[in-house]
Amino acid sequence: MGKVSIGLRGWRFEESEVFTEAGEVRPLPEMEPAVRQRVARLMVVAERPCDACFLLHGEAEKRRCNVAEAVYGEPLSEVVLCETHEPDFLYWFREAGGSARRGEEGFRDAFHEWFADGGRAPKDYGGIEHVDTDPASLPEAPDPSEPTSALEDELDAMDADLDDLDFEDSDAR
Ligand SMILES: [Zn+2]
To answer: Where are the domains of the chain?
Structure first.
């Protein structure tokens, strides 16, 4: 079973923990407490404006803020971001000390402080790749059944075919 995002990208869930085999969302009481907390929090923050937009525009200009598309950090100290500001967060997390605050209560405040101080990703900072902000998760070992190994087998088979072709060609000449 794979990991899935619900509503906002960023937080990921084990598919079987949040969905039934029929593909329906499990009732909250059926979920593990930690999963339930995250899903319940997700429902609250999904409608929130982007944290960075909000820092820029404030309550009075809330309508100028983009709706959040991504969520990072832990429930209650999570950061929600629009597509424009997600690179700033990712830059902070990877390059400006953010990952050291992973799992801390002050995670969101630390990002807000950095951003309010003018912290931004460099202009060419692409990188909307997922980062794991969950302190409990460890990098996963590559799955041997992944398509890569099937692809390698296929490439090997192609090599063998090419060898055959070479042989036939030289034979014909
Ligand atoms: Zn934003």
So the answer is: 3-116, 143-173
